[in-house]
Amino acid sequence: PRVKGWDFSFLYQYQGFWCPPKFFHGILSFQRHFQAKDTDIVLVTFPKSGTTWLKALTYTIANRSRYTLENTPLLTTPSHDLVPFTDLEIYSKNQSSILEDLPTPRILATHLPYASLPHSSINSNCRIVYLCRNPLDQFTSYWHFVLQPQPADPVSIDEAFEKFCQGVTMFGPVWDHELGYWKASLEKSNNVLFLKYEDLKEDIIYSTKKLADFIGCPFTNEEEAQGVIEEISKFCSFDNMKNLQVNQTGKLAHFGMETKAFFRKGKVGDWTNHLTPSMSKRLHNLMEEKFGESGLMTFLQS
Ligand code: A3P
Question: I need a surface site. Which of 152, 197, 216, 253 has the fewest CB within 10 A?
Fold first, then answer.
């Protein structure tokens, strides 16, 4: 089935999630041909959940022995180009050979649900970092990013929310996406780390440390004493990243989008300015029903 008027192009359902057909080639090719390495770090998000931030943080942590914050490539290259989507960018352009040349650990990125990851990733010992976000804020961010700015085919926020609650959104339904990684993180806690945007906002030092430990690049006592964690967290903060020249005037190499579109408000709870309490209640009830006894609702509300 396909749905019109809701994205750059129509959305189709593939393996239970919704996606524009222009992505199919890259996704299929990634699923069929990708060879994971045990040292890989795979960053996964539902779109508009903090991908840009997670890429910057992970890249900086993993490459801190190669680059300082004064000469990091992030000063001149958007985090999306330093950590491109493996399926939507690398495989979609038949550039998989560049994966062989990436330094160890390779940092990869995808929006795919857990059940649709390439078998070799699931069967390897690679580390998967999943970042989720309050779906009301994620939806609000998505609406501003994709849906509102299309004057030729405008979508009202009410109409978009209706579709969202039916699960029809890029890589949706959101509840299946989150639940897949949540269950995997419980079953394979050494391989799947489940993070929350709101936790990163609340205590970025703790989250940066946790991320570094998980990806196998822990901070030494000496680094901690020197304030390296604080420096990296501050460097990757919304205000600092948004104000970098590259993120004010740059364009993404693959998608051609303006980098500034990835930095809007960077806040928790902006949904209250766009959605009503009854919309929130509806989504809450829906998620509660879908998550059942998994414990995910409790985690998201903690
Ligand atoms: P808002 O639209 O709510 O401001 P993604 O990177 O997955 O596309 O998500 C984009 C969202 O993350 C946007 O949310 C954006 O402002 C926010 N964001 C981008 N960089 C961030 C950072 N360094 N810290 C916190 N939020 C950030």
Answer: 152
Task: Supply the residue whose CA is at minimum distance from atom 14 of ligand 1.
Answer: 266
Angle at CA of residue 243, ends 85 and 256, nearest 5°: 35
What strands, in cross-sheet order, belong to the sheet with 11-14?
2-3, 11-14, 17-19
**For atom 17 of ligand 1, which residue has the closest CA?**
266
Q: Do 18 and 172 contact (CB within 8 A), yes or no? A: yes
For the record, the structure tokens of 99 come out as 């994966």
**pLDDT exceeds cutoff 60 at 6:** no
Q: What is the mean pLDDT of residues 131-156?
A: 84
Q: Which of 25, 33, 80, 111 is an active site residue?
A: 111
Instruction: Give tens-digit pLDDT for 58-105.
Output: 999 999 999 999 999 999 999 999 999 999 999 999 999 999 999 999
The predicted-structure confidence for 194-225, as pLDDT tens digits, reads as follows 999 999 999 999 999 999 999 999 999 999 99
Say how many Å lie between the CA of residue 222 and the centre of ligand 1: 31
Provide the H-helix boundaries in the chain.
Answer: 24-33, 51-62, 79-82, 97-100, 119-123, 135-142, 157-165, 174-187, 197-202, 204-214, 221-226, 228-235, 238-243, 245-249, 277-291, 296-301
Is residue 264 within 6 Å of ligand 1 at its C-beta?
yes
